[in-house]
Amino acid sequence: MKINGNEIRPGNVIEHNGGLWAAIKTAHVKPGKGGAFAQVELKNLIDGTKLNERFRASETVERVRLEQKDYQFLYAEGEMLVFMDTETYEQLALQKEFVGERAAFLQDGMMVTVESHEDKPIGIKLPDQVVLEIVEADPVVKGQTATSSYKPAVMENGMRVMVPPFIDSGEKILVDTNEITYLRRAD
Q: What sequence ranges are listed for the domain Elongation factor P C-terminal (predicted)?
């Protein structure tokens, strides 16, 4: 679907320079001289590189619609992660590097959304929050009030996160999967 350059919004996926790019930020600029344009920060969906580009209102770009499908995480086997389509029960195997460091948050039975273009997976969305158990928490240093009162802790998936001093080993916490930060104690 073709759209004008000034109609690009954050979250849109466009075809540009032979690749698929997601618009992250857009700013409409009206200089004193010349025509208005949209300054767009783009992120390549395949390799993650970023690019700043100007699009004039008179230019047209191809907006791409991504197919989104829900999958259930089944298991990890070596460097492969195996997911199951919840409607057709077909299995999909993806490389761990495709998911990146957030692969550590995958738990058996977890529902994820796989984004694809022309039947080729190009992105995966995990739940924004997951519950994990703390397996190791450093003791609080007495008199450490001049600096931040957070302490490092190791979660059951092996990742480190900063937690408040009242969190101890064995407690379950809610973690933001995008920022990899502590949110609160799990209920």
A: 130-185
